[in-house]
Known about the structure:
192 residues, alpha+beta, 38% helix, Prepilin-type N-terminal cleavage/methylation domain-containing protein
Amino acid sequence: MLNRLKKEEGFTLIEVLAAMLIVSIVALAFTAYFGNALTFAKTNQNKTIMSNLARNALVYMQKQDFKRLEAYFDSGSATVVKTGNALSAQRVGITPETFGSCTNATTGACAFRDIFVNGNLQPTMAVLQPTVNGIQYRVVIEYQKDLNRSVADGGTLLLPISATVTPASAGNAGPGADAVTVEGYVNANSIR
């Protein structure tokens, strides 16, 4: 019986510790991988939310009065969203602040509040300042005059615009959520 016990072989303490070290190194590698995958998934979620908000803003703008929208963009009262320099012209558009202070005023940008149905700015503000998952976003509608077509190419029937979505507070929306821009056109009422 004693001989049989001597012949039994097992793992030594050093072999067990070496195996545990190898398993822990592999586990750390997987932990880093899953951490990166989680960050990547959160980045994609943020970009998807911002893309959907931009598309929502474009659809909302496409339902507004074409002639009044065109008059607003061509007026001197339009909000400047990007200043111009010698190489590029200034860009105008609609920001949450454009109509945010309008009550019953009929001057400046407020004179164009009838772009929106019944002059009701509450839905407009909801589109320009949405909150999703507890994070507030800011939407800026920009008129892209340099993309406007000639009259022969149907330029009088389309207004090129873009919607840019950013988090209201920088870094608040998490990784990869700097800004998302979606471009589109507002069609004239005659071709809707």
